[in-house]
């Protein structure tokens, strides 16, 4: 006899490394969700910048259903048509010559870091193994990626971290220059820090990193797990800057909600990943690849990408209006539909308090650290949903102000 799961079942059965909100969504359509009680919510969280086309978009549902009747999984002992189509599409739309498919952003970044180390080892020798990253960066939850990420809280308590990893201040080119040397194999950077507070890189910073990598024969890795697949208003954020990386990682919006990820690179670098050097059981899964291909083809259109810029401005205007009423934000920043509102000193560390208040009002949001309210809605969220969602957010913030 089946029973309806409750929020208490999470505490009873699940490992306690998450603390989800008390409501359990059970149905979604576009930018709206409904919970077990039938209450409606407007979704500005987007599965943490994953649901690029909202919930149950017909293009993605159609691709999934069509592929589900054909072929699900083969393993990397064989290839499959959806994986080949997805790889070809990504190559044709980006700087890349080669694509490695996997299942998550952490896997893609792990592959990128291993590839960079292997390239340096095979090309220059064992001495060239240093990786430079940036404080407050986030690159995943594998042990290698949390070590490269610039937030020690994610790697503490698990024993000695991998060696050869150095951290500089984000957007500080001088600090990066001081760390660079002939033993540097790679620099890994987010074009816009996500978990670190929604902080875009400056043009000079990314251009300078490219020059430093060229000077020291190191690889430049762009972590576009959160900024990629249309999130910033270009297919990938590097296109805004005109700075070409050697390796790029993509996940989240890439599958529009289906678990899939990719590492993109050049022929020159890819050649060192020879037979058996790396792998992923589910990488190139036919279902995931079919959905991702549909997502990429739908997102990489003028209608969607130009619409991201328009929606960004509309949300910014609403946030500024809210702030004129309540004075809780110090700065509103971001690119495209990955936006952050930093709290003022009077509301230091209070961004998380907005989330349950927003739920009460029927609006879902995120945080990026304790001081930044993060919004990552669907790239095609209707304007009426933006207006209604922002009205609900205003009511939630009004409650926060009343509480003091």
Spell out the blueprint of helices and strands.
Elements: H1 7-13, E1 25-29, E2 32-35, E3 40-43, H2 46-49, H3 58-68, H4 81-93, E4 98-102, H5 105-124, E5 130-134, H6 143-148, E6 165-168, H7 173-179, E7 184-189, E8 192-193, E9 199-200, H8 203-215, E10 219-223, H9 238-241, E11 247-250, E12 261-265, H10 267-270, H11 286-299, H12 302-326, E13 329-335, E14 338-343, H13 351-361, E15 363-364, E16 366-367, E17 372-375, H14 383-403
Parallel strand pairs: 3-15, 5-6, 5-7, 7-10, 10-11
Antiparallel strand pairs: 1-2, 2-3, 4-12, 8-9, 11-12, 13-14, 14-17, 16-17
Helix pairs in contact: 3-11, 4-11, 12-14, 13-14
Structure keywords:
single chain, 404 residues, alpha/beta, Aspartate Aminotransferase, domain 1, Aspartate Aminotransferase, domain 2, 2 domains, 7-stranded mixed sheet, 4-stranded mixed sheet, 14 helices, 18% strand, globular
């Amino acid at each position: 006899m089946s029973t309806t799961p409750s929020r208490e079942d999470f505490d009873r059965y699940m490992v306690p490394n998450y603390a989800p909100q008390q409501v359990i969504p059970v149905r979604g359509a576009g930018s709206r969700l409904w919970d077990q009680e039938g209450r409606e919510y407007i979704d500005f969280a987007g599965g943490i910048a994953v649901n690029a086309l909202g919930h149950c978009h017909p293009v993605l549902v159609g691709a999934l259903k069509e592929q589900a009747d054909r072929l699900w999984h083969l393993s990397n002992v064989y290839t499959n048509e959806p994986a080949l189509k997805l790889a070809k599409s990504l190559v044709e739309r980006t700087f890349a010559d080669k694509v490695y498919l996997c299942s998550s952003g952490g896997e893609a970044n792990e592959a990128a870091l291993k590839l960079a180390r292997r390239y340096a080892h095979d090309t220059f020798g064992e001495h060239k193994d240093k990786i430079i990253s940036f404080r407050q960066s986030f690159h995943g939850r594998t042990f290698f990626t949390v070590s490269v990420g610039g937030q020690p809280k994610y790697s503490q308590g698990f024993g000695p971290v991998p060696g050869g990893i150095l951290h500089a201040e984000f957007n500080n080119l001088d600090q990066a220059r001081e760390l660079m040397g002939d033993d540097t194999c790679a620099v890994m950077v987010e074009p816009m820090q996500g978990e670190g507070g929604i902080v875009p890189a400056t043009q000079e910073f990314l251009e300078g990193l490219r020059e430093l990598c060229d000077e020291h024969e190191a690889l430049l890795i762009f972590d576009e797990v959160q900024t990629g697949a249309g999130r910033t208003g270009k297919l990938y954020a590097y296109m805004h800057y005109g700075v070409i990386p050697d390796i790029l990682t993509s996940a989240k919006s890439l599958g529009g909600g289906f678990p899939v990820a990719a590492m993109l690179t050049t022929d020159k670098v890819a050649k060192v990943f020879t037979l058996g050097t790396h792998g992923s059981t589910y990488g190139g899964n036919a279902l995931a690849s079919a959905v991702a291909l549909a997502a990429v083809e739908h997102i990489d259109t003028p209608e969607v990408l130009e619409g991201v810029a328009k929606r960004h401005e509309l949300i910014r205007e609403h946030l500024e209006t809210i702030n004129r009423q309540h004075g809780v934000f110090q700065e509103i920043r971001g690119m495209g539909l990955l936006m952050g509102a930093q709290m003022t000193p009077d509301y230091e560390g209070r961004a998380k308090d907005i989330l349950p208040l927003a739920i009460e009002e029927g609006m879902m949001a995120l945080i990026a650290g304790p001081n930044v309210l993060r919004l990552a809605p669907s790239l095609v969220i209707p304007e009426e949903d933006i207006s209604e969602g922002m009205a609900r957010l205003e009511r939630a913030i009004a409650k926060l102000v009343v509480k003091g």
